Amino acid sequence: QVHLVESGGGLVWPGGSLRLSCAASGFTFSDYYMSWIRQAPGKGLEWVSYISGVGSSKFYADSVRGRFSISRDNAKNSLYLQMNSLRVEDTAVYYCVRVGQFDYWGQGTLVTVSS
Amino acid sequence: DVVVTQSPLSLPVTLGQPASISCRSPQSLVHSDGNTYLNWIQQRPGQSPRRLIYQVSNRDSGVPDRFSGSGSGTDFTLKISRVEAEDVGLYYCVQGTHWPFTFGGGTKVEIK
Known about the structure:
The complex is a heterodimer.
Chain A: E1 3-7, E2 10-12, E3 18-25, E4 34-39, E5 45-51, E6 58-60, E7 68-73, E8 78-83, E9 92-98, E10 104-105, E11 109-113
Parallel strand pairs in A: 2-11
Antiparallel strand pairs in A: 1-3, 3-8, 4-5, 4-9, 5-6, 7-8, 9-10, 9-11
Chain B: E1 5-7, E2 10-13, E3 19-24, E4 38-43, E5 50-54, E6 58-59, E7 67-72, E8 75-80, E9 89-95, E10 102-103, E11 107-111
Parallel strand pairs in B: 2-11
Antiparallel strand pairs in B: 1-3, 3-8, 4-5, 4-9, 5-6, 7-8, 9-10, 9-11
């Protein structure tokens, strides 16, 4: 059974950094693109970043490019999102999602950027 | 980016009555492999999103058969044949044909 468990969210000052993690299980992790998708309070879903199975291809939304960095460790079945220079508008629940046409989602981790 | 347009924004429905949500793309969502990667996502209040329908019309495991997806090319529809209380929430279409994949803006289904 596929499980995706995010961690690492929290309260951070504007300009600060956080690193999100996603622990995956129940499938061959390296076979899949993985993504981070976020949802700001009361808003819709917004994709943040994708990474290919071997980590060689990465994609970022314009809103985070240059500030966020996605990575993965296939030996540990883990996905990461390094978030730097955080802004108030980055406040959201961040979901780890398997990009097999969005078939599996984690429970999400809340990131709050506030002074 | 392919901007996928969903309508309506809000959908008040009487219990037991049907509901329909539209999703439109400015360009065809038929992939070069011949498949059409248009999916529907449900998000109940306080829960994580989950996929309901993949490749236009295929229900995911455990999804009630009152949910159906249809359409082709650029126009797609999610239908609920008889709305139940547990169907309240947000519904999103998401295209997985053209990078970057994009979500519709969402439709809020609520009970009248």
